[in-house]
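Run folding on both entries below.
>entry_1
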Amino acid sequence: MIISAILFIVFLALGFPIYISLLTTGIYILVFEMNMDMSSIVLVLFDSVFKFTLAAVPFFLLAGALMETSSMAKRMVNWLFYLVSRYRGGAPLTGVLASEFFATISGSSAASTATVGKILYPEISKASGESFALGLLTSCGALAVVMPPSITMILYGATASISTGALFLTGIVPALLIGGLISFYIIWRSNKVETAERFSFKEFMLRTKNAFWILILPAVILGGIYGGLFTPTEAASVAAVYATVVAIFIYREMGLRTFFGAIKDAMMLNTQIFIIIASSTVFSQALTFAQVPQKLTALTSDLSPVVFILIINLFLLLVGMFFDPTSAVLVITPLLVPICNALGIDLIQMGLIMTVNLAIGMFTPPFGLNLFVSQGVFKKSMAEVVASLKPFWVWYLLSLAIISYIPQLYMWLPDLMK
């Protein structure tokens, strides 16, 4: 195991893609240390992606891509902006609300940062300054990791063999908690109303009409799941078909070239995710054959759940700085499941803890993906992006502490649905 650990670290240090590092190390352990046949590893690669639950990922990505390339996202943001812009902190509050809303459709943090950022960055910069706008939009994009339908939750549910629907339910309150704390901070630091425009019911109804079909999409997705009409995977396909119909036939603003361009973007991202899923599964199986989960369970058996949660939070925050959520979930979850079972920690609670930690990692240097998205979208240096994020790390970490140690805040929802 020492040689395999060194091999993994060397691959990462040399800048190889994470999936190559995971796959190469996993093959080394299974073939050279466990004497497994290569044909068995090939079967593991294919079996890892042939899961019904994972079929939700490409459909949710497609729904997000269609929102991004059409006017659907802009219509939604314009509607929200008209509602809250006349209040204290209205423009940045719109950024929080729009990020939460977009997250209920896409589940992609990078897409949320880019889509909402392109629309609202000028308005928030004018109202609260460029640095605040930069930090707010970069950090709020990570809400898509927490708010259902979260792709990270889908992967965690599939890996831990627990209900994705239950995970989605428990993710609603934590996502609203994070958004709520950031909203209170926005109101506290804002000292004026950004617009003197009076509310017009006629204008409100016009904007509602323009955004109606996109505003009801979250209700279609989540209402369909919890109303028993379809599973989360089926909900993803409904979301993709719905977004396609709205963009092409109702708003009539998307031609075939743009439509196929959105499909291409979604499939490129989907391919990256599924390559990581396959390679992470091989790596996880190698760790299982090497009895790493059993050794970790024995090592942590004397810890209390409170101490273990503190340790795992620190560990996951560190992991999130270097690994994308997909890789982290697929590698770490098989190690945590037996430990959580031994310590009596609910796997759904652990899923929320992991999800929030990895959401923070999305905008934490050196390798947080949202940092690079913001660099490209807002044309800012890495130093400027990182400097703008300081206050938002505080609110995310405070939310993480609450979520970690007050599970009653969100665990009641699955029980209520039962």
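>entry_2
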Amino acid sequence: MKSATSQEKMRQRAPSRRSLETRARILDAAELLFAERGFDGASIRDIAAVAQTQAGLVHHHGEGKEELFRQVVARRADELSALRLAALDACRARGQTDLAALLRCFVGPYVERAESGGPQWLAYARLIAHVSADPRWRAISSRHFDATATIFIDEIAALYPDASREKIATGFVYSVAAMLALLTSRWRVGELSGSETPEGARGGLEDLVTFCAAGISAAIAK
């Protein structure tokens, strides 16, 4: 049994509800501003203003701007990974492990969250586009995305044992870029197609899967 002293220390270390709410506001504000302005364009002061808190608290909760950036990326990466792997397990159980099914397991959970999870999830897509395009965030990508990506690349490689792994990885990266485009650039589809109300990302999921599967298949067949 824990002593009264040790129990009191645990209560002292546990963050209060107010502290957790402040941290959530800070992460939300940082996510929006990093997505809009990139890492360099978003200041701690601006993040504090959007979060309606003090800059000192942003430093306290974020442990510095670069660590705050990593925390913002990590917050949704872990949830996405769990959703993707659960979808993959369900496909395996049904015996559906063709290329289109694998891609649907990977991109589908994000599309669902982007359609139903509010503006923060769309901001996260723009943020990940920044991370994917900037080599200085290689360590963040490796830490929070590579393990799950490698599982899916392994699954694709098992379907095409004679294919170059580099070509498979290239096609996979292109597919991720296409997913981000679907999530962040529907307005461009509307402008270029002349449609005032282009279908949402969820409606375009099957087109995206078909596009990416055909591209990967063509690339590895060369």
